Amino acid sequence: MQVDMAILSILAVVIVFVIGAFKQNPLHLGILGMFVAFVIGKAAGIADTTIMGFFPTTLFVRVFGIMFFFAIAQANGAIELLAKKMIAKFGANARLMPFVLFYVGVILGSIGINSLAGMAILGGIGVSLAAASGADPLLYGMAGGYGIACGCYSPINEYTANIISACETAELTPNLIGIYLFCLVAFSISFAVIYFCMGGFKVNRDGTTMALNIDVLKDLPAFSRGQIISLVGIIAVIALVVVFGIDVGWAGICVAVVCILLGACKCGDAMNKVSLGSLMLICGMGTLINLVSELGGFEVMSNLLASVMSTHTVAPLMCITASILSLFTISRLVVITLIPTLPGILAAIPTASVGMAITATCAGAFASCVGPLSACGALVMSSLGQQYGEKEAQNYFTKQMVMGIVGMLVVAAVCWGGSYIGVFGS
């Protein structure tokens, strides 16, 4: 009976992923996750209140706290203005601008900007720059979003709360700084490959380099008092987390309260920028994942994955598995689903590196994020549609999907190399 329930619980997760991949008349996956958790829990004979106990309260506080703080900087326009000022500081060389957008995204993600907000802002700016200059709008739109994805591995970004929570469920200890630095290298290499695959290095027929029309970035206003307060608040959050070791969720809430009291933003405006949908997705699916773990479902999944892995293929195969799932769903959902499978895999293959396995799984969750069906890729498609019309935007669908696969393969290759070199030890 226990084995049957374990298998049933894993099948339930697969069904939820499939429903998420086909988004006709979509049902919110967080709500669906809670519903499925209740049904599976009752089938396993678990009491209602016990099922409620699987709700990830700690994860909710962490994600909400840091989301709420950065919602202030988003609501008062500080984030968008900061991004535009950073991009405007660099030259108007069309060949270099994709890298400028990418590393501006890395910086914004690294200081804690929410992935979807950052992707929407930089994707829109990139497509606008390309439209004004005749450059490749898909490359420009993807560049900033891919950079934001890389920066999301920063220890102060709310995204890493998912990594921490998933590792706690699996009784593993993540090296957040190590994951961040590894992804910085892997995603830089991956974006360089995407850049060359899309011909970003090409020059005009006369051999000159096309200059960008950056009129959209001219005459930018100075930061307002409220915007300055929220930007200083970012430094305060970093200090609380890195220097004083305060949990990122509580750090975000504490600094947010101070910023609002100092007039950085109206509380209601900030609350409106907090994504309730994202919170419900994380916590609803988190409830299901915790139940699956209790029923032993991840042991079944671990045995299946371990059967096709060896010491040096654990990392690349976990990366590819995470990337394939991420092509069709939210990256954080991939992390909280796959990391709990690692203990069983590592028990079956004890010579594999624990740190590399964790890092590869995390890296894979964003490696393919520029694909058109993922959250990042969908925002790029939206920016293309707003600029060129929906019909024209659809012409980029196949190319965008291919670039998502390229990103997956390159990051997986870096993970494979990292496992051989022993980046995180044995």
UniProtKB/TrEMBL annotation:
InterPro entries: MatC_N (IPR009827). Keywords: Membrane, Transmembrane, Transmembrane helix. The chain crosses the membrane at residues 6-22, 29-47, 59-79, 100-132, 179-201, 222-244, 274-292, 304-328, 333-352, 358-380, 401-423. Pfam families: MatC_N. Residues 6-151 form the Dicarboxylate carrier MatC N-terminal domain. This is Dicarboxylate carrier MatC N-terminal domain-containing protein.
